[in-house]
Amino acid sequence: DPDTRVPFRVFKALMQTAKKLCNDPAFGLHFGEQSHFADISIVGLICQSAQTMGEAFHQMNRYAKLAIDVDATDGGNRFELKRIGDDLWLEDQRRVPNDFPELTESTFARFICETARHFGDAPFARCVHFTHAEPDYRADYDRIMKVPIRFGCDKNAICIHESWLSIRTNNENKYVFGIFCERADALLARLRATETMTGRVQSLLVPLMHTDHVGMDLIAAKLGLSRISLYRQLKRE
């Protein structure tokens, strides 16, 4: 089932373990360089069928939690376009990024490599800033990103050429775009439902409905709550 979700903690453990098993400290960079967004999530398919890269960026933010569910620092979008002086920055605003720098590495490597893969020499990145410290495999950053890079900065961000936003995608298709968006809206609604206590209880109940083991105590235990605490939270909702 392509829509099955992997818990974030499992994804994090998987990537960090892969680094060790592959003996590749730069695994996050290489994963971003070689993987295709459209193969990972329906969000990639939506972006691919959008009209321009600016529209694709908007849709990526709209459905971001379907690709990977992380929180932004201010509760807003994970990615923001910010103008600082004459420069336009694409900033990743997720919380505590240095707890999992591999995600920053893979995300930014994919941004840069997907653009080069689909649009050749079209300008995208001017330079890249990272909040984490410079690693021993700095040469991999230079090879993949091909722009000036700074570490230990106050933001994870790519300074971009503004013309990138108006590049027309290679697979623009309004009909396909509409179908993908309808499916993504349904998935987003399902995800939001599971974020409530009611939704979490329902998701635990459904697989048990055919058994004789359905009960308040069992569900409360699976949620790590007492029966009374679960009752109170459900009553509040």
Write a brief caption for the model.
This protein is an alpha+beta fold. Helix content is 51%, strand content 10%. It is built from 12 helices and 5 strands.
Describe this structure in words.
The protein has 237 residues and is an alpha+beta fold. Helix content is 51%, strand content 10%. The chain is built from 12 helices and 5 strands. A 5-stranded mixed beta sheet has the order 1-2-5-3-4. A hairpin with a 2-residue loop joins strand 1 (79-84) and strand 2. Helix 4 (42-49) runs antiparallel to helix 9 (174-194). The longest helix has 21 residues, at 174-194. The protein is globular, with a radius of gyration of 20 Å.
Helical amount: 40-55%
> What class would the helix/strand composition place it in?
alpha+beta
Specify the number of helices.
12
**Largest sheet, spatial ordering of strands:** 1-2-5-3-4
Largest beta-sheet details = 5 strands, mixed
**Number of beta-strand segments:** 5
Instruction: Give the radius of gyration.
Output: 20 Å
% residues in beta strands = 5-15%
| SSE series | HHHHHHEEHEHEEHHHH
Report the average pLDDT across residues: 91
Low-confidence parts = none
Bulk shape: globular
Give the end-to-end Cα distance, rounded to a whole number of Å. Answer: 31 Å
